[in-house]
Amino acid sequence: MSPKQTLAVLVLMILMVIGSNSFFVVNEWQKGLLLHFGKIQKVENTEVAVVRDPGLHFKWPFIDKVIYVDTKLQTMDGRPQEVMTNEKKALVVDTYVKWIVADYAQFYIRTQNDNSRAENLLERIVNTNLRAEVGKNTVKETISGERAQMMVNIRARSNESAPELGVKIIDVRVKQVNYPVAISDTVYERMRSERHRVATAFRSNGKKEAAIIEAGANRKATVIQANADRDAKIIVGKADAEAANIYALAYNKDADFFGFVRSLEAYDKSFNNNQDLMVIKPDSEFFQFMKDAKGDKKK
Questions:
Q1: Are 167 and 107 spatial neighbours (Cβ–Cβ below 8 Å)?
Q2: Containing structural domain, residue 172
Q3: Which of 5, 58, 137, 288 lies at 20 to 30 Å from 22 by C-alpha?
Q4: What are 256-277's pLDDT values in tens digits?
């Protein structure tokens, strides 16, 4: 390769390096903060930082530097904090915070564009206001639906300090509220005892009600049985009376035939068992219909 060709290659490489350091691309979820000699570049004759929107931009190579700031909504999962209510009762409150970068220059100055560092500082602000707000309320208010207003107040007070970090708090929410471990054991034991007492009372009342229902059912069954026995006796009595009346009518209508039928029934019962032995006089009235179909005792 000739000296001219070598020089041309070197010039081309230098131009490529300069070109690659002269343009930069800001993605749609970012903002580009421009630094000039390591300092935040300001718009001419103002204190406003130069911030580039998404797209392709030019910068002076090796002199300017671009800080890419994430503009997406961030979530800070806070660590559980032990706080005191106005009743001097301890609670452990677990929260999370939604936040975004609002002032890119201030955010860079305070955090060096480090989200973890920003969240550590933000957590201190939120926890300070959390303790202050819970300290104004009771346990019931803290764990009930009324805590929604508490969260609004915490967010508002935290946003008073958030601009120092260059951020804005969008929302503060409570994930859960618990008693400290030592207190929780006592509370849970008391709750178990109370539930056991209530359950015992329910079982006792249930047995009492069951006994009352069973006694009532037995009483009703006795009454029903007595009424049934009474009705049965009445029916049997009426049937016997009706049968006697039928026999009487039959006898009065034809006394001889009635006597004949009754004698046949007596014969049937008497001679049904071959082992029976009867000692009766031949002229007994028992045999009157065997001697004469009309049962005439004179013959």
A1: yes
A2: 74-178
A3: 5
A4: 666 666 776 776 666 666 666 6
Q: Are residues 169 and 188 in the same domain?
A: no
- On whether both 87 and 154 belong to a single domain, the answer is yes
Q: 64-67 long-range CB contacts below 8 Å, 24 or more apart? A: 64/34, 64/35, 64/36, 65/34, 65/35, 65/38, 66/24, 66/26, 66/32, 66/33, 66/34, 66/35, 67/32, 67/33, 67/34, 67/35, 67/104, 67/108, 67/113
Domain boundary among 178, 194, 209: 178
Beta partners for residue 159, in sequence order: none
Residues 245 and 190 in one domain: yes
The torsion angles phi and psi of 37, rounded to 5 degrees, stand at 55, 40
pLDDT: is 279 or 192 the higher one? Answer: 192
Cα–Cα nearest to 121, from 160, 82, 167, 154: 167
Residues 240 and 271 reside in one and the same domain: no
Domain count, the chain: 4
Task: For the full predicted model, state whether its pTM sits above 0.85.
Answer: no
Quick one: 200 and 237 in the same domain? Answer: yes
